[in-house]
Design a protein that fits this description.
Length: about 240
Amino acid sequence: MMLARHSASPDRVRAFVVAIAESRGETLEWGMHDGVPVADWPGEADIAQSVAMVRPNWLAVGPSAEVARFIAMTRAGSTEIVPGFPMPWEGDGPVVEEEFGLMGESRGGAEGAVTRPHFPTEFSFRISNDAEGNVTARWVALFEDAAGVAAASEHWDAQRREYAGNPMLSLLGLSSALEGARFESNENQLTFSLHLTLIQMSRLIRFMTPMIVGGRRGNRGARGSEETPTPESGATAH
């Protein structure tokens, strides 16, 4: 599950999510789950995805069952997402600006976390859009030292070039965005910027979602027997 902080109004967030769905020919309606605004997240993943406005300036996006659990945790007054990782609005947590992810060696407390080369110790990720719906994604990552930045820059830029030449992404109209993306480094910081139209972003979400949730499919059968409530558009507040 991903938590993202934003500075937009609730109405603008709702409209943006609806616009992503509409750009893909889908219909999306916001509903309520335990007093929290929720919607089905547009995608073709095997596992149902949801987006929830868990705080006025915080979004939770992920598998519907996980989002439902997170909503229950916030209502119960929980202060930790997993042991050692506080809620982002509860003092000092692993939050750096707009979004956080459990990515580096220091994230060993996350379920299933492993050491991954070329991944930062912490990062921030900001997505902004203009009146025309064009989207700018900016990823800023911190590493232990300049050597780590150089190695990561070389690795991820090679990945960018490879995906820019991917026939499927070319057919989806995403190659031009990846060709124009650039990495910038400064001491122990690496910045990646990507500019997309709203249609390109919705197509990118469609392309990436199966990869993101693929690692969870092995747990699907075990969780299928759990009677865990999931946020649905038609749900009502309790």
